[in-house]
Design brief:
Elements: E1 5-7, E2 10-12, E3 17-20, E4 32-40, E5 56-59, E6 66-76, E7 82-85, E8 102-113, E9 117-118, E10 125-128, E11 140-142
Parallel strand pairs: 1-4, 2-4, 3-5, 4-6, 5-7, 6-8, 7-9, 8-10
Antiparallel strand pairs: 10-11
Length: 143
């Protein structure tokens, strides 16, 4: 994909992920990403089959220059469910590009979330501009 921006997305009750991007062009400047999103892991309408899975709210790409700004995560509070996942499709044997990538995040809000990040096969690096993901203050990192 190119310079894709997911604006004002609302997702709920997804078995794998609410939003996932596998790859985008490595663009410099105003990054591709997710903006003003609402992600609900399990709503009051959730089927029992979902609760046997371990979804992510957002799975980031295996490319650089991607961001998440103002995302709210609710009810990722069972099993291995998590708000963030890393390196979309890096687990696949035909993946041609793997390894750590840097994502930029800010304005993250979480309620009833047991696991903030569940790393995949290849780990990524989260640059938390305001400390809302890590809880470690502005300009902090998770890897």
């Amino acid at each position: 994909m190119g310079w894709i921006k997911f604006n004002d997305f609302k997702t709920a009750d997804n078995r794998e992920s609410g939003i996932q991007m596998s790859q985008h062009l490595d663009l410099i400047g105003d990054y591709a990403g997710v903006f003003n999103a609402l992600l609900i892991g399990a709503s009051n309408n959730t089927e029992a089959a979902l609760l046997r899975g371990n979804p992510w709210g957002i799975i980031g790409p295996r490319t650089e220059n991607w961001q998440v700004v103002n995302a709210s995560f609710y009810n990722y509070n069972w099993g291995m469910a998590a708000a963030f996942g890393s390196c979309s499709h890096c687990w696949h044997p035909q993946t041609t590009d793997q390894g750590a990538r840097e994502y930029t995040v800010s304005g993250i809000h979480m309620e009833n979330v047991n696991r903030r990040i569940r790393y995949g096969e290849k780990m990524d690096i989260y640059h938390d501009l305001d400390g809302s993901l890590t809880g470690m203050g502005p300009d902090s990192w998770a890897s």
